[in-house]
């Protein structure tokens, strides 16, 4: 019986099952795909939100481009020229009182003087 | 029984050693060779992606997984085509295509546990002790299943054997 089986086993060994295609060399783990998907979803969401926000803003202004013009006052220099940041910083470090005085002086030039008799604030107060 | 994860190299070795036998095994459920190959591939890709905790006997696990995946594929009715003589999962060294096809067909007709025993023993190269361990049955049971399978195969393949 055993030799009978051996003989038949030899015959069966003449048959070979087909070799399946090879496995891919590199597999990206599922967790990485999940992370990539989450990142892509977050970016898409952010882009979508900003697009929606930009559209709704342009929609509220009728879609027209609003140009804001600044009117230059003749004879007045831009305030940045009187207030160089580096100089102010140095002054703040060395002499804070001088800085205070300087800022007060500059603000008088820049802001309307409410102490004048014809200043808007006084007129409004009288009314 | 403990569980561990196989390295990619372990999975590849398992695939190289048992892949062809597993395709033959899967083909007894889904008949179509390409579908059988897909089933085996799918099981090993899952192993490679390290989603699976492997029991101590990986070969038993892969046979179970291939069986389940093949049964699922059969349920879905995917490519459950009739046997194509040109595309048998077996190749006969002497080029006897009819015999190769008859072998695949006869294997599919065997009771599942006999089919499993003979494929594991003949084409996965497991000893009967290993077959018994993989199928969680006593050695005598594994040996009987194997012997019954051989008897039926011998009977069916007799007409194709060279004198």
Could you outline the blueprint of secondary structure elements for this entry?
The complex is a heterodimer of chains A (127) and B (163).
Chain A (H helix, E strand, L loop, with lengths): L1 H11 L2 E3 L12 H31 L18 H4 L2 H10 L1 H15 L9 H7 L1
Helix pairs in contact in A: 4-5
Chain B lengths: L2 E2 L3 H23 L2 H16 L5 E2 L2 H19 L13 E3 L4 H13 L2 H11 L5 H8 L3 H19 L6
Antiparallel strand pairs in B: 1-2
Helix pairs in contact in B: 1-2, 1-3, 1-4, 1-5, 2-3, 4-7, 5-6, 5-7, 6-7
Structural summary, described in words:
The complex is a heterodimer of chains A (127) and B (163). Chain A has helices at 2-12, 30-60, 79-82, 85-94, 96-110, 120-126, and one strand at residues 15-17. By secondary structure, chain A is mainly α. Among the domains of chain A are: 28-61; 79-126, no CATH class. In chain A, helix 4 (85-94) packs across helix 5 (96-110). Chain B has one domain (3-160): Up-down Bundle (Butyryl-CoA Dehydrogenase, subunit A, domain 3). Chain B has helices spanning 8-30, 33-48, 58-76, 97-109, 112-122, 128-135, 139-157; strands spanning 3-4, 54-55, 90-92. Chain B has a two-stranded antiparallel sheet with strand order 1-2. Classes of the chains: A mainly alpha (127), B mainly alpha (163). The interface between A and B is medium-sized, with 19 and 37 residues.
Which short descriptors sum up this protein?
heterodimer; A: 127 residues; mainly alpha; 2% strand; B: 163 residues; Butyryl-CoA Dehydrogenase, subunit A, domain 3; two-stranded antiparallel ribbon; 7 helices; 3 strands; globular
Q: How would you summarize what this structure contains?
A:
The complex is a heterodimer of chains A (127) and B (163). By secondary structure, chain A is mainly alpha-helical.
């Amino acid at each position: 019986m055993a030799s009978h089986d051996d003989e038949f086993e030899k015959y069966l060994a003449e048959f070979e099952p087909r070799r399946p295609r090879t496995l891919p060399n590199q597999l990206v783990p599922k967790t990485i795909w999940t992370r990539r998907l989450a990142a892509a979803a977050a970016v898409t969401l952010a882009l979508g939100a900003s697009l929606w926000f930009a559209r709704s803003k342009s929609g509220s202004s009728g879609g027209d481009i609003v140009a804001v013009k600044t009117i230059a006052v003749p004879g007045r220099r831009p305030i940045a020229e009187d207030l160089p940041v580096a100089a102010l910083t140095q002054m703040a470090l060395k002499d804070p009182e001088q800085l205070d005085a300087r800022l007060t002086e500059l603000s008088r030039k820049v802001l309307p003087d409410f102490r004048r008799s014809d200043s808007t604030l006084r007129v409004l107060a009288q009314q | 029984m403990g569980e561990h994860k196989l390295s990619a190299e372990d999975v590849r070795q398992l695939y190289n050693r048992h892949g062809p036998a597993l395709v033959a095994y899967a083909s007894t459920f889904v008949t179509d060779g390409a579908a059988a190959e897909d089933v085996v591939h799918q099981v090993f890709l899952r192993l490679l992606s390290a989603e699976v905790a492997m029991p101590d006997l990986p070969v038993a696990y892969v046979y179970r997984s291939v069986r389940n995946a093949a049964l699922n594929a059969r349920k879905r009715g995917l490519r459950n085509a009739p046997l194509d003589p040109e595309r048998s999962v077996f190749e006969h060294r002497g080029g006897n295509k009819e015999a190769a096809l008859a072998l695949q067909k006869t294997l599919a007709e065997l009771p599942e546990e006999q089919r499993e025993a003979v494929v594991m023993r003949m084409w996965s190269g497991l000893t009967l002790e290993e077959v018994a361990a993989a199928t969680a049955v006593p050695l005598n049971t594994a040996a009987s299943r194997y012997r019954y399978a051989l008897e039926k195969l011998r009977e069916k393949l007799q007409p194709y054997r060279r004198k």
